[in-house]
Write a structure and sequence with these properties.
binds adenosine-5'-triphosphate, 16 strands, D-amino Acid Aminotransferase, Chain A, domain 1, binds magnesium ion, Rossmann fold, alpha+beta, 3 domains, about 30% helix
């Protein structure tokens, strides 16, 4: 196969590993910086120009689109889809996963366990919002935050209300969520490839931090998940239409609850914690599934 790895920096661990895994299996793989692509939609045939040439001959695309460049990155993925190149994660699914509210709505439609979540445009009724989310403590999140940035704990009703009002004052979209205290600052990240959980880890926040993100100094260990957690992770990936993703869950008193589904999950933490060759699993999945024009989401938002 000839594969395009869409990423900003080919030197990151995850990207190096995907390229190694592809080459080890006899494939050709090019790292393509999506921000340097020029999309040509005016002509009869959709094309992508890149560093003075037209991209062609690719069988499959592995998108690794950073959260800050979702708009242009997903447009490049969409252009590949129009060129009938198989994209392991499709543009629609990536765009969905970037918006926490939209993701939670899709997950709730499928009956997947979620923390109680409230979203409001008007923040002048902060007191009601906090009550609807089950009362303080509550977690307040930016809709498009990542790496734990923009995730705040409102410990008391007054603190929660002033945080909500502060975000409202700068016109930022937030959601307010039940705080799953019993998770004890730990969450579960399941790496889903196709219809399987290929690796799972438990992440624990730095001392004194309820956020377990590795980017915030958290640590990771391999974990054996329950059948219910496995089924939840797989259903969440399916609801989002993602073939490769990291599903983040909390162990709550009422079973596993999904916080979010990440469409470009980092591989370093999970491969190191579990010893699983996740990059290899991704390449194997592409080998089995690529087909010109094949789509899971059929472009549906
Ligand atoms: N409702 C909640 N109850 C308890 N802890 C929570 C809750 N929501 C988030 N957390 C903690 O905060 C962390 C960050 O939250 P979340 O995953 O929603 O943010 P993010 O910025 O999108 O992170 P990512 O880098 O994984 O995309 C979680 O991994 C979890 O440890
Ligand atoms: Mg996230
Ligand atoms: Mg997360």
């Amino acid at each position: 196969m000839k594969i395009a790895l869409l990423c900003r920096s080919p030197h990151l661990y995850s990207h190096q590993r995907i390229m190694e895994a592809a080459k080890a299996r006899g494939h050709e793989i090019d790292a393509i910086d999506h921000l340097r692509c020029t999309i040509d939609i005016a002509s009869h045939r959709p094309k992508i120009h890149y560093q003075g040439r037209v991209l062609s001959g690719y069988d499959a695309v592995i998108p690794r689109i950073g959260a800050s460049v979702t708009f242009f990155g997903t447009a490049v993925v969409r252009q590949f889809e129009m060129m009938r190149v198989y994209c392991v994660n499709e543009s629609v699914a990536i765009a969905r996963s970037r918006d926490k509210l939209r993701s939670l709505q899709l997950l709730s439609r499928k009956g997947i366990g979620l923390p109680i979540t409230v979203f409001a445009h008007k923040t002048s009724n902060a007191e009601d919002i906090v009550k609807l989310a089950g009362g303080a403590p509550v977690v307040i999140k930016l809709l498009e935050g990542t790496q734990g940035i923009g995730v705040v704990l409102g410990e008391t009703p007054k603190a929660a209300e002033s945080i909500i009002q502060a975000f409202g004052g700068v016109n930022t979209n937030i959601l307010v969520q039940e705080y799953i205290e019993e998770a004890n600052g730990e969450d579960i990240r399941c790496l889903v490839v196709g219809d399987k959980v290929v690796a799972s880890m438990m992440r624990r926040g730095r001392e004194g931090d309820f956020r377990s993100n590795l980017h915030r100094g958290g640590s990771a260990t391999a974990i054996k998940i329950t059948p219910q957690e496995r089924a939840t992770a797989i259903s969440a990936a399916k609801a989002m239409g993602l073939n490769v993703c990291g599903v983040d869950m909390l162990r709550s008193n009422h079973g596993p609850v999904v916080m979010e589904v990440n469409s470009s999950p980092g591989l370093e933490g999970v491969e190191q914690a579990t010893g699983v060759d996740v990059a290899g699993k991704i390449i194997q999945f592409v080998e089995k599934n690529w087909e010109p024009g094949k789509t899971r989401t059929k472009g549906k938002g």
